[in-house]
C-alpha cells in the first residue's frame, strides 16, 4: 500500500528529573539554546529511539532490519547488498568504491531490507558504494516550551575501580561523580512525511503506522537512570488529501499552541494547556490526535 498523502505532525513529550539528551561536548549537560535557555533534543536522539523500538518489535520480520545500530559496521551491510543482488565481483579492489551500474540496485536492496534506510534515508557511499537515500521522514530538533534549568547532583559510588585508588583512600573506597537533570521540561518536535520520497524508498502505509506507534511507545522501552521519567504527551497528525499537500506545514503548526495553566515553575503536564485553532480550517486537511494530554 503506497503512501498517497502528505503528512505533517507535532510531537509533544516531557521529562521529569532526567536528562533527555546530554551533550558529550559539554560534560553531558542537557542540551539548550544558549540565548533563550530552552532545552533541545536532537532529531538523531529521537530517531535512535524509533530504531530501537522497531528492532525490538520487528526483529524477526523481513524488511525491518536496522542499518544504524550500536556497534554496526556499515560497509559490511553494503557488501551484503552486493552479494544478495549477485554482484560479488564488484567488491574486489577499487570497483567496490564505484559500484558500476549496480549502485541503484544495491540501493534498492538496502531500502527494501532496512526500515531506517527507507524511513530516514542514509549516506551509503562510504567504501562500498550503495548510493544515497533521502528519506521521506524528516524531524526537527525538539525545543522545550519554556526555558529549562539544569540541576547538578553529586553522586557517590561505594567502590573504586583499581587497587591503586583503594590504597590512596586507605580503604574508604568511594568514587565521587556528577549527574545532571532537568526538573521538568515539555518539549515540542515537528515532523514531515513526503509521499513522493516514500515512493522512491518503498516506505508504505504499514511503515507509517509502525513509525507512529514507535513515537507513542518508544520511551517505555528506553528507560535508564539518567533519563528520569520521559513520556509522549501529544501526537497531532495533519493528513493532506493529496501528495502535494493543501496548506504549508508552518501554517498548520502555528495552529497548535501550548500555554501555561498555572503560575510558578512547571513540574508536570498539568501545568500546561494545549490549544488548537480550528478557525478557517484549510480544505483537504484532516487533523487526528494519536495522543492527547
Structure characterization notes:
- This protein is α+β, with helices and mostly antiparallel strands.
- It folds into 2 domains: 1-42 and 141-149 and 181-293, no CATH class; 44-133, no CATH class.
- The protein is built from 9 helices and 14 strands.
- It has helices at residues 43-58, 74-84, 95-98, 103-113, 115-120, 163-168, 195-201, 205-217, 249-253, and strands at residues 7-18, 22-23, 29-30, 38-41, 121-123, 132-134, 137-139, 142-147, 151-157, 175-193, 229-240, 256-260, 272-276, 285-291.
- The strands form 4 sheets. Strands 1, 4, 7, 8, 9, 10, 11 and 14 form an 8-stranded antiparallel β-sheet that branches. A two-stranded antiparallel sheet has the order 2-3.
- The radius of gyration is 23 Å and the shape is flat.
- The relative contact order is 0.21.
Give descriptors for this structure.
single chain; 293 residues; alpha+beta; 2 domains; eight-stranded antiparallel β-sheet; two-stranded antiparallel sheet; 9 helices; 14 strands; 27% helix; flat
Task: Describe the secondary-structure layout.
Blueprint: E1 7-18, E2 22-23, E3 29-30, E4 38-41, H1 43-58, H2 74-84, H3 95-98, H4 103-113, H5 115-120, E5 121-123, E6 132-134, E7 137-139, E8 142-147, E9 151-157, H6 163-168, E10 175-193, H7 195-201, H8 205-217, E11 229-240, H9 249-253, E12 256-260, E13 272-276, E14 285-291
Antiparallel strand pairs: 1-10, 1-11, 2-3, 4-8, 5-6, 7-10, 8-10, 9-10, 11-14, 12-13
